[in-house]
Amino acid sequence: MTYRDAKGKAAARLRAAGIENEAAESAFLLEYACGADLNFYLLHQAEEMPQEKKSHFFQIVEKRCKRIPLQHLTGVQEFMGLPFFVNEHVLIPRQDTELLVEEAVRVLREELDDSIFSSPNPDISSVSGNYVQEEYPISKLQDFHILDLCTGSGCIAISLKSFFRHAFVCGTDISAEALEIANINAVANHTGITFIESDLFSKVSGKFHMIVSNPPYIPSAEIPALMPEVRDHEPHLALDGDRDGLAFYRRITAECPDYLLPGGYLLFEIGYDQGEAVAALMREKGFEDIEVIQDLAGLDRVVRGKLPYNEGIKGPHSQI
User: Fold this and answer.
1) Which residues pair with 303 in a beta bridge?
2) Which pTM was predicted?
3) What are phi and psi of 71, to 5 degrees?
4) In sequence order, what are the residues at sequence separation of 6 or more whose Cβ sits closer than 8 angstroms to the Cβ of residue 2?
5) Longest pairwise C-alpha distance within the chain
6) N- to C-terminal Cα distance for the chain?
7) Nearest to 69, CA basis, from 289, 230, 286, 226
């Protein structure tokens, strides 16, 4: 059996198992199983495939036919140009979530980084423990404090840290197993992140310039109808948003003013049909400059809002 024959046979098996994009997946699995790239395949596709490589390749194909996610077989998913190790304890990073990171970067650069902040208050210092105590413009240091709730694989926190190397970034998750993966990813991507095992804010102290979250948002009744790759292999703890999918948005929006600096931003990833509902929750809690941002498909994907200043109180963002 040649490499080309093996690839075609694998594609047929994947198609019979109900997997879309079977040609692309068979090519990717062949490259992974053989430790080779596309150039190798193009040069050697007509050659006989060694028995050892053929056996290994079809073992992986059979696992994929059982709807085990491709990323669980290879162990890696790229996100924002960075590699992330994944397994059954974390959600696989999705391209949709990159819009949340992109909007967070834009806000930090265009809205917050243009401003001059005074030295941090004691609450912030108690979180990081390594804050510069003299007064410097944050625009020079990019010394933001960012909190990522429901961090999972750590892909959002680590990506933001890669853009803002001087930022203090903290990620929380209720799952100890997920945080083990997040720590592995932080080390692999050479980013220093503080991870805390916490039910949202329960073990968080201090205040932040920005809070971001991709929380569980799928209504409980919809989970049985999800694709097998998601329903059977990704953690329900990271998927189930309770009866209407909005439980975590309610909790985070209600509690976050105690952890967000005046003038700071809250950003959520949302389901395609949740933009209006999440924006309404933020309005009810007094957020301003609320915007629902759509993805390239024209679907609601991110909601952003700003915590207003308390009248008569000048906080560290008073010069924005």
Assistant:
1) 268, 292
2) 0.86
3) -70, -25
4) 45, 46, 47, 48, 49
5) 78
6) 67
7) 230
